[in-house]
Amino acid sequence: MSTAQVFPFNPLDKKNLGASVAEALVTSTAHLLGNVPTFSGVGVYAIYYCGNFKPYKRISEQNADRNQPRAPIYVGKAVPAGTRKGNAISDPLQSRSLFNRLSEHAESIRSAKNIEIVDFTCRYLIVDEIWIPLGESLMIAKFAPLWNTIVEGFGNHDPGSGRYQGLRPRWDVAHPGRTWALKCKQREESAADILRDAASYLENIVFPASPHFTGTLGSAD
Question: What is the pLDDT of residues 74-83, one digit of tens each?
């Protein structure tokens, strides 16, 4: 008879550290995306949809309780200013990157013609910058949010003058309204094509039985 191999729990294992960040995020207070109080800090966030837009019906069903939403439509991160250039500010707690990122997303949704900001809530977690990528990657791996996968481009910024040769993001085709996106090259896909892909994706996705990460702690994977 073979003996099952038992691994001791290591709280400092990278996966366990990431899971603790993700768990702290999904158990934090949900806020209306259009009315997030001003705060400072960097970290990770999740945006939830709970409206009546027909292609997103299955997401809304998961988020019927707006105070306890279960399935994010988008997950993202906000790092200290200058991180990509290697000169991040010395005190991330003085940064407003996370608040500003959520505000940008709210404005993108307000500009869209077929969805309403009142139907979106969010959770956010201020966290030391070293754990931000871990928390974000575990959230995306667990939930496979629609706007991180099929309807991409929600998190894009205006590329600026002279850089509109790229294709219009799929998100902007599905949810037209951002003026800068209209300057990008038109896609061959129509809004109906993309939203049909979205509905098909949601019909086949298996939502996690639990939105929590506590059960992943201690895994030897």
Answer: 999 999 876 5
